[in-house]
Every structure is written in structure tokens, then in C-alpha cells.
Amino acid sequence: MQKPIYLVITELFPTSDSFRGPYVYDQVRAIEKDGRYEVVVLRPTSWLHKEKNYEYNGIKVYRFTHYDLPSDMWPGSNTWLSLRAMDKCLKYLGIAYNDIAVVHAHVSNNARFANHVKCQNAECLTVLQHHGYDVLGLSLGRFSTKEWHRKRALRYGVRECNKIDLHVGVSKEILRYLENNEGIKLNGKYVLYNGVDTDKFFKKSLRLSSKNKTFTIGCVANFWELKDQITLIKAVEILVESDCINIKVKFVGTGYTREDCEQYIQEKGLEQYFEFNNEVDHTQLNAYYNTLDLFVLPSYWDSFGCVYVEAYACGVPFMTAKGTGITELISETDFEKWVIEPHDYIALARNIKNYMNKHEKQILNSAIDIDTLVRNYLDFINIDKNTVAE
Fold this sequence. Notes:
390 residues; 2 domains; 33% helix; globular; Glyco_trans_1; Glycosyltransferase_grp1; Glyco_trans_4-like_N; Glycosyltransferase; glycosyltransferase activity
């Protein structure tokens, strides 16, 4: 008997040239592994770029053209052309709309495609997953500061989102951001944390403890203001001034605030305590995490943050700041040990020093294994599709 189709529509999917969207790839693999559905991945591609279907690590990705205007000029423009292109793609693949049991679109701009499937097959469950706090894309494009554009984006986003059966957030906080938009009414919601493929990320061996060993802190992120790497640098400065000199921070990432961070380090004469790398190949990230004693990213505006759970899966605890979705996985009793107020480098220095002295075990209040998280999600949507929206 042929399995029902689980249709994924996303622009967030890796290619041989770009690793953007690895968490969606891992999610697709986990749904496939569960065995209840045949998973088909469609990737909308702008009419400005002629790109072909491809395969990424065993997952076939089929492209169809969307006809959005450049720079998100007028959200929802030329939708009928984009829907027709999806129709042609499905026909080429031999997929009838009645064969689709679930259509799972990523980010609000792709809600229109899920709703189109629903129009052709009323029995299909529509799922829309949100990954960033700007859930309706109000800040996208060169016209994002224009009131007319924001009103159009809001009106269009609310209209499409309100048709969706189930909204999935990578944290509770992101769903709260969505619900705060005027006019939004969620028919159903579910929190699906970005899990970890534990075949890729795992603890290799016990690190030897020694008074003379350098305590190594890792930080993987783009150098953007909201990632706030400068807070970690200032915290380490405090530790060094208090004679905590067996310490090293290994930064990975590029971005517009990196130059300021490097300049600050030079001005303070702290070069020996910091290392900068532009990137680490994703296949080498497990090895990188396994060199660390602690992972610190004091970001204060992140819907979740996969790097935290990647480090945790490798046996490395993490510290962050309030405003990041990952804090939902930290219990109230341990909260202040691992979470600071945004920009509070004094508290961060104190927390790092406490961990260096005590090495307390970090315990999360949720599973992080992606197979477990996806299995629970699929159980939820299969209990009774008619009750999902309740």
C-alpha cells in the first residue's frame, strides 16, 4: 500500500554550495525515518534564477518558480503564477492533490502554497512552521521602513496565516510573537524545538581535568549586534583581570561587528585569550564542540538557536541571555546559572567562573534528539486531524 505524502515546501534547504537550512534537512530525514509518510520536498525559486532539481545527501529536492517581485516589493503579488508553477511541478512528479495528507510549509511567505493544496484537497492538514521572530516578514526588503509596505505585508500575512490548520514554532516565544500581530487567529499551534541528529553530534570522550589545562569556551554565530559577542569578550576580560588566565575563547563566524570586537581585544591587550575562525565545515562541527568546556552565545533575540543544542549533545553545557528561545529548555531552579540579562557581562563572568570551579551538570527539561521530537510531533498530528486545531 502506498504511503500518504508529506509535502514539504521550503526555501530553507541545503545545497552543495550553501548549508542554509540544515535543521529543515534533519527534520525531513527524521520524518522519513519515522516511516509513516513518503516525504516530498519542493523548493520555490525566484523567476530571476534558473535553477535545476537536485539531490542533497539522499533527499531529492524539486524546484518550482515563484514570481514574487524583487525585494519583497508587494507581498502576494503574482501569486496565481506561482501557484500554477507548483501545479505543474506536482503534475510532473505524478502527485495528485488527493494523495497529499500533510503539507508543511516553512515561513509565512509559503503559507499560500499550503493553502492552495487545501483548496484542492479539503482533507489535507496544512502546517506552517515559523523560524524567526519577524514571523510575517515585516522587516524584509528595501521598503520595510515604508508604512504602506508594512501594512500590506501585515494584511497579506494575517490573511494567509489565518487559513492554516496548525502553526508550528521552534519555541513558545515565536508563537507569542505571531499571536501579537493584530488580526491573527491561530487555528492550532505546536512547539517543535529544533532537535539534534545525534548521529552527527555526540560526545566523543571524556575531557581530562587538570589545573593546568586551558579552559576553552566556544561561540558559533554571525557577528551581528543581537548576537552580542562583545558581552562575552568583556566577561573574559573580567576573568583575566581576576587572575583566571588559563582560558581561551574560540569564535567562529563573520559579520559586521567582528571588526569592533577584534579592535576591543587589541586595545585591551587580550589577543592571547581569543581565536577567530571564519567558519568550521559542518562535518567538522562535532569535533569542534568536543574541544570545548563551555559554549557561550549571549544572544538576546533568537527564536531558538541550534548551536546550543548541538553543543549540549556533545556534552558541553551552554550559557545565553534572556530573549532567546533556548531558555525555555532551562528549568527555573537553574535559570540564573546559565542565563543572564542582555549585555550583563558581569553576571556572565560570574557564571563562567562558577562553572569553572564547580562543573555543575546542565539538565534540560526537554528532549533534544530530533527523532524523538519529530515522532512526538507526528503522533500529535495523527491522533485525529480534526482535533489538531482545538
